[in-house]
Amino acid sequence: MEQFHQTFFEESFEGLDAMESNLLELQSGNSDPEVINTIFRAAHSIKGGSATFGFNEVAKFTHVLETLLNEMREGQRAATPQAVNLLLESVDVLREMLTAVRGKQPIDTAQANATQQQLEILLDSAAAPVTSSSTLKASTSAAGWQIRFRPKPHLFMSGNDPLRILRELGQLGEMHIDVDYSALPGFNNFDTETSYLGWLLLLTTPRSKEEITEVFAWVEEDADLTIEPLAAQPLETVARQGGDRRVSDERRAAGVESTSIRVDISKVDMLINMVGELVINQNILQQIGEHFETNKLDLLQRALGDLARNTRELQESVMRIRMLPINVAFNRFPRLVHDVSQKLSKKIELKMSGEGTELDKTVLEKIVDPLVHLVRNSMDHGIETPEIRRTLGKPETGTLLLSACHKGGNIVIEISDDGAGLNKAKIVKKAVERGLIKATDHLSDDQIHELIFLPGFSTVEQVSDLSGRGVGMDVVRKNISSLGGSVEIRSESGKGSRFTIRLPLTLAIVDGQSAAVGNEFYIVPLVSIIVSTQVKSGQVSLVAGRGEVFHFRDEYLPVLRLHELFGAKPRDRDIHAGLLVIVEGDGKRAGLFVDELLGQQQVVIKSLETNYKRVEGVSGATILGDGAVALILDIPGLIRIAHQRQVA
Amino acid sequence: MAMKILAVDDSASMRQMVSFTLKGAGYDVEEAADGKQALDKAKGNKFNLVISDVNMPVMDGISFIKELRTLQDYKFTPILMLTTESTDGKKQEGKAAGATGWIIKPFNPDQLLATIKKVLG
Description:
heterodimer, A: alpha+beta, Four Helix Bundle (Hemerythrin (Met), subunit A), Alpha-Beta Plaits, 5 domains, six-stranded mixed beta sheet, five-stranded mixed beta sheet, 41% helix, B: alpha/beta, Rossmann fold, five-stranded parallel beta sheet, 5 strands, 44% helix, globular
């Protein structure tokens, strides 16, 4: 049975997610019967599965839940906000129970019992009676039974067969059978689809009447049936078949997180198709190779071209398997917004778009925390209370928009609200207090907004229960940067703020531009390059306290000489001899000085941290076609280094 | 010829368990996730037995059984529904729709096989 547990857990957790989102639908007034039906079905499946697989506590709990849901489904009970809240709580309890069961940990029965009790109180509150099936019926026993059994003419229509029943009875003891064929019509009127026969059965058996009746359970309604004792005599209680309880060997393993992934069949099909083409290609190449003549060069080149295309497609297909819709991360937000807005007494409507946008499973898992933080921030600090909003002439209900889409090789996630926007005066005041800026500094709006990403910055005067648990925006930015992404903020006072997160689609492969510095190669992620240019005289100037700066589109960008940073020996130190690669990350720009640019290529990222140690300015390493190792540049990290130097 | 069974349930773990158990006992098993799918599969095949859950999306078990019974090929085919004790009314509803009988959840593989042996002989 253990082999089905994994599937059971996966579908149960999915079921719980479905219950949750549909309960929230219910709460927001959606009266589509399919909503409550879906909730019921999920609970029903969890109950059935948990009972089947022997998770009795879960089954017991879900049974009460299901009874309640059934009453709602049948329209006997209204889905009051209190009831829905209790159901949401039950979903949480179930989730914890299942997590515990999966990890072979003991279940927190106190919590479960408390919630179950509340459910039962709710159940009892209306007249709807709860039938208990566990009442034991008194069982009578006899030496045997005299059974009169006459199926109704339509018995066959339900797929039942009296023979099957007779056969089963025969296995219970010794049986004497008398057939009553008095109802048989003449041959001409005989209908092969009608049941005409009746039986008188004398069965000698120690089995109870209930057990005999059980045999007829499926046909009770479709037959005349009497069961009378043959010769009554008291019998010792018949040992009932104890429910065949299988003691599973309880391997006490530590809780294991699911490492499996559900993949759309079409993706696998595509993969198989691709491999098929690859095999054909390999055959072609082999044939060319077996008798190679120079006039086959054309063929060889074409086959190699196909091979390159196949490999790239195969790579894309494999990567696509790791892709999951961002909904996996988004689906927790309706509940979060529901709970938090209640707690804050704010009215917040959550709108989501682009839930189907796919991104790498690992990126997805790691982006959840930063997203939760940003959403909480918006609810906590952004959107105002209904009273304030009314006085400002805004609708009482604030809107929180969560969207995702693909742009170029990136996925862009936006979190925006129509709240108060960032309080610039407060930010500047705080930054001055913390010594992050001088009171005399004149900063642009964007520069002020950027301040909130600095380590140790927090404008929250009172640390609230929600945001501001000491985890600041700097951690959000750090987490996003570690995924190779960036986060930007746009905010307008009184109108709201918008956070824009850009993430690479995958962590495993990057489109890179290789650049040479002396004998070393570096990979610059293509997405962060704005332009590469040869420096003309006068474009780079030395500014006191800021080092070299490059005049680029009305901006002065700091210049970072890679050879200095990584201790390499450049071909030429003259800034006019090499190239300047203008890169952008986290909304800031800088120029990287390199000797020359080589080709563009896709590189597989190998972690430097796991194989060596973390190096500032480097996000990983890769192995080039000729076997050489190249470092992949961490652009946001490098830009930070460049700007820190400027400030210093 | 191995007996062919159609197992219908929206829960993948239930389906897997039923299917695995029956295959282990030498039956041919096809799976379907709802009544609509099941009906399509039933039309293209001749099953000796159909086991169906009651609560399913798209087309529930009762409607499925009703539809299936109207097909000439399934006039007398045993159809068992998977049901729980809490849904006692469903048994009668299922019978009225044409179900042969029922298997009460929860059940273990042995109980399932015993019931199916009774029906298929």
